[in-house]
UniProtKB/TrEMBL annotation:
Pfam family, one: ABC_tran
Name of the gene encoding the protein in the UniProt record: phnC
Domain ABC transporter: 2-246
EC number: 3.6.3.28
Protein name listed in UniProt: Phosphonate ABC transporter ATP-binding protein
Localization terms from the record: Cell inner membrane
Gene Ontology CC annotation, any one: plasma membrane
Membrane topology according to the record: Peripheral membrane protein
GO terms of molecular function: ABC-type phosphonate transporter activity; ATP binding; ATP hydrolysis activity
InterPro entries in the cross-refs: AAA+_ATPase (IPR003593), ABC_transporter-like_ATP-bd (IPR003439), ABC_transporter-like_CS (IPR017871), ABC_transpr_PhnC (IPR012693), MetN_ABC_transporter-like (IPR050086), P-loop_NTPase (IPR027417)
Keyword Iron: no
NCBIfam families: ABC_phnC (TIGR02315)
Keywords: ATP-binding, Cell membrane, Hydrolase, Membrane, Nucleotide-binding, Translocase, Transport
Length: 268
């Protein structure tokens, strides 16, 4: 379980970007974080994986405090947090397998990392996960030969190679076409359930958030102003979060094609 208490982040002497956030996310739970540009969504994810230093507050993952840990303890904490990126963040000239094995770098020694001699168990785990997401046949292909959806699957497997206790996804579908986006959202949803992982997804596409996640958290100016079920995320909630400025046209309607595969929850 992820437990955030009174999280504050201030960059320099500016006004706080996160103003006392509280959030609990159970295992198996897929939560989307929505909010206008600048609301603090990325800062929140980056505080959790400590790419950004929180100003104050507490972030606990399965009881272990993440705020203020340093050195080896921070490295150990970080490897428990898998991250999936909008731009995939793959090493294009390396193969799919090499990219996937990069997820183990936090676990192997320097010699193994430099010589890329990963334990057999890691290679087997890599194949199992690649098979699970349908990319095992691409193991020896270069990453830049894959489509966007395939590349994102590589990104997901690399994150899972860390044996994470939490998965963070920062706009994981923003670079993908609608159909591929749906597939990636369904994949994240299924993996959360299969691996008993809490998953937090920053997402601009409110229709996808409503269809493929079971809980929506809405941020505005660094404060949480909505935390509830997709069914309760109505026009008032949308206006409160986006202030009528940035709300996408289709935000409260069903995502076209959402029925193409079986989502776990009925679209609302
Ligand atoms: N490294 C930084 N230094 C100073 N200010 C920053 C830094 N990173 C983000 N900010 C500011 O913090 C605020 C929140 O930014 P953040 O990227 O967290 O928002 P967001 O909701 O993720 O936006 P978007 O949807 O556009 O990615 C913005 O005003 C931004 O300018």
């Amino acid at each position: 379980m992820l437990e955030i208490t009174n999280l504050v982040k201030r960059y320099g002497h500016n006004e706080a970007v996160l103003k006392g956030l509280d959030l609990k996310v159970e295992d198996n739970s897929v939560v989307s974080i929505v909010g206008a540009s600048g609301a603090g969504k990325s800062t929140m994810l980056r505080c959790i994986n400590r790419l950004v230093e929180p100003t104050s507050g507490s972030i606990k993952l399965n009881g272990a405090e993440l705020v203020n840990v340093k050195g080896a303890e921070l490295r150990r904490a970080r490897r428990k947090i898998g991250m999936v990126f909008q731009g995939f963040n793959l090493l294009d000239r390396l193969t799919v397998m090499e990219n996937v094995l990069a997820g183990r770098l936090g676990y192997v020694n320097l010699y193994q990392a430099i010589s890329r001699r990963f334990p057999q168990a890691d290679i087997e785990r890599a194949f199992t996960l690649m098979e699970r997401v349908g990319i095992a046949h691409y193991a020896n292909k270069r990453a830049d030969e894959l489509s966007g959806g395939e590349r994102q699957r590589v990104g997901v497997v690399r994150a899972l190679m860390q044996e994470p206790e939490l998965l963070l996804a920062d706009e994981p579908t923003a670079s993908l076409d609608p159909r591929t986006s749906e597939q990636i959202m369904i994949l994240l949803q299924s993996l959360a359930s299969e691996l008993s992982l809490p998953v937090l997804i920053n997402i601009h596409n409110v229709a996808q958030a409503k269809t493929y996640t079971e809980r929506i958290v809405g941020l505005r100016h660094g404060k949480m102003i909505f935390d509830g079920l997709p069914a309760d995320f109505n026009k008032d909630a949308l206006d409160a979060i986006y202030g009528g400025i940035e709300a996408p046209d289709d935000a409260i309607t069903e995502q076209p094609g959402a029925q193409a595969e079986e989502p776990r929850h009925d679209p609302v």
